[in-house]
Automatic annotation (TrEMBL):
This is Lipoprotein. Residues 1-22 form the signal peptide. Keywords: Signal. It comes from the Bacteria.
Length: 165
């Protein structure tokens, strides 16, 4: 009796497990195909890419995802194309393109580009967005300190003038 119940339970578990695996496989395949097609259609329609340009962008997942994030954050297609065209031409690599798109998404009203001349050696270099954030915080604090010093000196000057009168 116990063997029959055990065999019956094993049969039920095997059927349920098989059914669940086949359902998840079907849903993954159904979901994955339309999403990939819609990404390329979205890129082609929003950015006006040719088939060759689209193929080069879609081959690189990092760039594709960053472009889609930029579009999602309502960055204009002109600014995206400005940074995407050098990538397509082979002037920018994946890292440069992704960083520029991230920066352009963050600072939408600014015009950003890479400097590729001898003077750019003196400029700070960043490996991540955290490095840029730390640099901006540091420069903001330095600027705030210099403004506070000027404000303090102006207050001292105005109090000296009041005492003289």
């Amino acid at each position: 009796m116990k063997k029959r119940i055990f065999k019956l339970m094993m049969l039920v578990i095997a059927i349920v497990f098989t059914y669940n695996c086949s359902v998840t496989k079907e849903t993954k395949q159904e979901i994955a195909l339309p999403v990939v097609a819609s990404k390329s259609d979205l890129l082609k329609s929003k950015l006006g890419l040719t088939d060759k340009e689209l193929e080069k962008v879609v081959k690189n997942d990092s760039v594709t995802n960053q472009v889609l994030l930029s579009l999602k954050d309502s960055l204009s297609s002109k600014k995206i194309r400005k940074h995407l065209d050098p990538f397509i031409a082979g002037t920018y690599n994946t890292k440069q393109t992704c960083v520029l798109l991230k920066l352009q998404t963050r600072f939408k009203n600014k015009s950003l580009s890479l400097l590729k001349n001898k003077d750019s050696v003196k400029l700070p270099r960043f490996n991540s967005m955290e490095g840029i954030d730390n640099y901006l915080k540091m420069t903001d604090s330095l600027i705030a300190k210099s403004f506070n010093r000027k404000a303090d000196s102006i207050k001292k000057d105005s109090t000296k003038q009041q005492k003289k009168q």
